[in-house]
Amino acid sequence: SPGELIADHPLVDVGELLLDKEARKLVGVAVDGMKPEIYYFDAEYAKLQATLDASFPGQRVNFQWRGNRVVVSTTGDQNVGKVYLYDTARKTLELIYSVKPELDGKTLSPKTVINYAARDGLNIPAYLTLPEGIPSKALPLVAYVHGGPHSRDHFGYEPTTQMLASRGYAVLQPQFRMSTGFGWKHHTAGWKQWGLAMQDDVTDGVAHLVKQGIVDPKRVCIIGGSYGGYATMYGLVKDPDLYQCGINWIGVTDVKMLFTVAWSDMGGPYMDNMGTLMHGDPKKDDAYFQKSSAIENSDKIKAPVLMIYGSEDIR
Q1: Could you give the 3-state DSSP secondary structure of residue 130?
Q2: Are 173 and 165 in contact (CB under 8 A)?
Q3: Of 107, 217, 220, 285, which is the most buried if we count CB atoms within 10 A?
Q4: Nearest to residue 288, comparing CAs of 204, 195, 224, 189?
Q5: Helix boundaries (H) for the chain
């Protein structure tokens, strides 16, 4: 039977166990929340974390500790990533390298965490990046949908988001139902919901920002790769008057093809078992596949769309 519960989180799955392999002990747990969190069970590790946090206020600080040497990595709104060597005996901190020195000293657009209610009441967490130095009112918006769909976005520097924000766009990254890491209920709420509730979660996020006055409803675009490419194509199908344009790279255009082709790396026992639960049964759900197919409904697309695929990508 299970023992004592030692770590839990109200929004996300508890993630990586933090181990001191030399001492052969569990020292804490890392939680991949909408912002990363670390909880230590070991007093010495907690003390060192507090010392390093005080040296880098407002930054996310991770470390690896061996003897009197600690490799420290830091990230933040204005810090893509830096690595230091800390000597616990001498109390010295030495910069080793910067992940992107070309961005050092430059102002980046901060990524914030928001939550909004989908039309059926499900809470949808999301990242919102607003352009630096511009009033957050009636902005053009890019809805940037992650791939997977059983995946998620993460906090921190993301080059596409920063590029768009630097050019005056607000960027919304919704963690729609089916996204992983937010509990079983959030994940299973997206089963067999391609083009349905999964798509509405994106639309409802746009509506949330429009209602707040942050976004101009006449200047909204949708983009994404893989499943995000599907959401782009189907968003243009389902809400042709909402999006002014779309960008789809390596996107799925026909959900049923996940099951009906032999040359895809999505085939095999995984898709035969869990795949049918999550994405539909090709033997029983033909009406669903027809309705959710972007290519079968492409005549409804009115906005311009850029589709990007590699010439040697057989998928």
Answers
A1: coil
A2: no
A3: 220
A4: 195
A5: 43-55, 159-166, 184-188, 197-211, 227-238, 257-260, 269-270, 276-279, 286-292
- N- to C-terminal Cα distance for the chain? 45
Pairing assessment for the beta strands 25-32 and 36-40 based on DSSP bridges: antiparallel
**Tokens read off for 75:** 């990230």
Burial zone of 262 (CB within 10 Å; 0-12 exposed, 13-18 middle, 19+ buried)? exposed
| Contact by Cβ (8 Å): 140, 147 | no
β partners of residue 168: none
Q: How far apart are CA 130 and CA 162, in angstroms?
A: 9
pTM tops 0.85, yes or no: yes
> Would you state the torsion angle of the CA atoms of residues 60, 64, 68, 73, taken in this order, to the nearest 10 degrees?
-40
227-238 and 197-211 helices, crossing angle to 10°: 70
- In tens digits, the chain (315 residues) has pLDDT values of 678 888 888 888 887 889 998 888 999 999 989 998 999 999 999 999 999 999 999 899 999 999 999 999 999 888 999 999 999 999 999 999 999 999 998 999 999 999 999 999 999 999 999 999 999 999 999 999 999 999 999 999 999 999 999 999 999 999 999 999 999 999 999 999 999 999 999 999 999 999 999 999 999 999 999 999 999 999 999 999 999 999 999 999 998 888 777 666 666 666 666 788 888 888 899 999 999 999 999 999 999 999 999 998 877
- What the block records as the tokens of 69 is 């040497």
Structure tokens at 221: 């675009």
Phi, psi for 102 (deg, rounded to 5):
-70, -15
